Amino acid sequence: MPAAAARAVRLDLRRRAGGVLPGEHAGTGVGAGLELAQLRPYVPGDDVRRLDAAATARTGEPHVRLEVPERLLTTWIAVDVSASMGFGSAARLKSDVAEGVADLLAGVAVRRGGRVGLVACGTDELRTVAPRGGRLARVAVARLLADGVATDGQRGATTLADALARVARLATRPGLVAAVSDFRDGGDWARELRRLGLRHTLVAVEVGDPREAELPAVGTLTLVDPETGAQVEADTRDRRLRRRYAEAEARRRAEVRAQLRRAGARHVALSTAGDWAHALARELGRR
């Protein structure tokens, strides 16, 4: 199923990527004598032999040299693994959908000759997969996301804004940036997306669950905010309470849509219920 969906995904990258799609360059073998193109900050997983001593001394942080293959289009994926992504009332968790989306996007990129990098946020530190191509890219993405989501109310948790800011530092050439999240954390992710939108093609994949849209009338419930750990008891038999909740959630969703539109991002809303892969392919396949 994901493979069939991937074949249907057609990402329109020409506007921001100078008219060059992944795979439109002639192949270049990876060797020791390749032309060096530019520099970027070091991330775990980079070949330490590519460290540039002069740039490292000048900036005060490790930098690596980019070689010709890395100048091909790179897809960066920022994935939210905060506690709220561990929710799911349907067939799967939101984190399951996010992991599948990351794998599908990585597969599309590498099959077209591009490279994939990933930054995961929501735990106590950002976790990064350095840009790479081929099968190893998908393996690295899957391995990082296999650690699961953060615990409820984890103190000092990194935010989606933190992840997008790191992508902005590492993505030195125009390419594709995909943000996969429920967009429920308190960071200023909208500002970071707008910054990225100045030079990159943006895709925002919003993952939700049907139960988040409205409260069920099942009596007294203890509601927990997974991002902060705050708890409140609510009598869900109260119609006014359920209506206020639904209205507040609708306003939040509308604000997310507005912020993504201002950033120039392609917005794709997916649910834990139903066939998310076909929905993703259908939305991204539209011109």
Give short descriptive properties of this protein.
287 residues; two-stranded antiparallel ribbon; 6-stranded mixed β-sheet
Structural domain count: 1
> What level of helicity do the residues show?
25-40%
Low-confidence stretches: 10-37
Which whole number gives the mean pLDDT? 82
- How many strands, what sense, and barrel or not for the largest sheet? 6 strands, mixed
For this structure, the quaternary state is single chain
For the record, what is the CATH homologous superfamily label?
Answer: von Willebrand factor, type A domain
Structural class: alpha/beta
For the record, the CATH class is: Alpha Beta
Principal-axes geometry comes out as elongated
What is the number of helices?
A: 8
Instruction: Report the CATH topology name.
Output: Rossmann fold
Topology as H/E string?
Answer: HEHEEHEEHHEHEEEHEH
Radius of gyration: 20 Å
CA-CA gap between termini: 22 Å
